[in-house]
């Protein structure tokens, strides 16, 4: 195998591995975003609609749709 063939093979192998890692990371991020959106919706539903929740009547500065997360 020539030097150029070895470089091309190594480059293709690296490209495939990087694409696999990028896809795995993108899927994980999509999962996190989906969980965050579902949590936001569930929180709003519980606070404003659900009979077991506080049944807040309107969104206001004192009662936002979602509370801020503070570290």
Please give the structural blueprint.
Layout: H1 3-48
Model description:
The chain starts with a helix and ends in a 23-residue tail after the last helix. It is mainly alpha-helical and 71 residues long. Helices cover 65% and strands 0% of the residues. It is built from 1 helix and no strands. The mean pLDDT is 93. The radius of gyration is 24 Å and the shape is rod-shaped. The longest helix is centred in the middle third of the chain and has 46 residues, at 3-48.
Regions with little confidence, pLDDT below 50 for 5+ residues: none
Classification by helices and strands: mainly alpha
Coarse shape: rod-shaped
Radius of gyration, in angstroms, nearest whole number? 24 Å
Name the helicity range: 55-70%
- What's the N-to-C terminus distance? 57 Å
The ordered H/E elements are H
How many DSSP-defined strands? 0
Q: Taking all residues together, what is the mean pLDDT?
A: 93
Strand content: under 5%
Sheet with the most strands, sense and barrel status: none
- Total helix count? 1
């Amino acid at each position: 195998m020539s030097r150029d063939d070895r470089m091309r093979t190594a480059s293709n192998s690296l490209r495939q591995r990087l694409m696999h890692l990028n896809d795995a990371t993108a899927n994980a991020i999509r999962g996190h975003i989906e969980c965050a959106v579902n949590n936001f919706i569930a929180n709003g539903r519980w606070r404003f609609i659900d009979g077991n929740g506080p049944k807040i009547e309107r969104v206001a500065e004192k009662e936002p749709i979602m509370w801020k997360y503070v570290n």
